[in-house]
Amino acid sequence: MTTKTTRIGLIGARGYVGAELLGLMAGHPHLELGCASSRALAGQPISETVPAVAGTAADGTFEHLTPGDVGSRDIDVWVLALPNGMSEPWVAAVDERSPEAVIVDLSSDHRFDGDWTYGLPELKRNALVGAKRVANPGCYATGAQLALSPIVDHLAETPSIFGVSGYSGAGTTPSPKNDPDVLRDNLVPYKLTGHTHELEIRWQLQTDAFFVPHVAPFFRGITLTITARVDRLVGRSALLARYVERYAHEPLVDVVDSIPVVADARHRHHATIGGFGHSATERHVTVVCTLDNLLKGAATQALQNINLTCGHDELAGIRPLLSV
């Protein structure tokens, strides 16, 4: 493990995930903020938006940077917290002007690119050590893959995934998916087929999966109910034991006997897998996974990836918060 200071450049710092990542950086012993770019917040102290950074190495002032500024900054890791489809000018600029820098892209732009390393540490840890181009997974896709991975080799039919997210998952740009008036006392399904996270799950696990997302009137958190038919009879206790064994050494994955609920996932850095419904006669199982879409679904995972690519303890900046 290295104790060398790693300088971070954060592009898209205004969004919810950018703010969470700045807060995590404030408690990291080896990260220093080189720049945080937000056109809307340029010139404002970061601590006004993220009070946790006051007096830390993540403190400073928001700037408005363009890809042309990449070459003039001494940055070890560029974190792109931008909407889908907007990363390419930044990637091209880093490739040209600072090719040794790491890029962690939080959008979906490179999750299907074989030249990039997929950043789900619990499934791809060895590939992430020393990687230079990392595609941070989607929030729904993170939970679904962690929940399916222990049984993916025993699926007899295409699993169905029912996902519900808080409206922070829709970002800060106003839309019906984050409009409190639309969401009040409501549950809104959207993108009924071909959601990018469905494609991501299929691509990474190399199996078919059906996924339908919904947005609910709470701010943060995700719950996924996954139902599948397996290829052989297995008792519920054996199913639970399979998950316990698979994640026994993963500090950010909790396996519980009960059904996890989304309220318990908020502000936590873990994914929690539980429930384990089971019908032996029909070879049918149901698993529930919850996580905080802004943390393990985005910022916490990005920090894991920064740590792995730069040689820090994977849980640096996260470990002190695990009991919170």
Give an overview of the whole structure.
The protein is of the alpha/beta class. The chain is 26% helix and 22% strand. The chain contains nine helices and 13 strands. The strands form two sheets. Strands 8-9-7-10-13-12-11 form a seven-stranded mixed β-sheet. The protein has a six-stranded parallel β-sheet with strand order 2-1-3-4-6-5, sandwiched between helices.
Question: Could you name the ranges where pLDDT drops below 50 across 5 or more consecutive residues?
Answer: none
In percent, how much strand structure appears in the residues?
15-25%
Mean pLDDT: 94
Shape: globular
Number of helical segments?
A: 9
Instruction: Enumerate the strands of the largest sheet in spatial order, edge to edge or round the barrel.
Output: 8-9-7-10-13-12-11
The share of residues in helices is 25-40%
Largest sheet: 7 strands, mixed
Order of helices and strands: EHEHEHEEHEHEHEHEEHEEEH
Terminus-to-terminus distance:
25 Å
For the secondary structure, the number of strands is 13
> For the CA atoms, what is the radius of gyration?
20 Å
Q: Structural class, judged by helices and strands? A: alpha/beta
Provide tags for this entry.
324 residues; 7-stranded mixed sheet; 13 strands
Describe, in short, the structure shown.
This protein is α/β, with parallel strands linked by helices and 324 residues long. The chain is 26% helix and 22% strand.
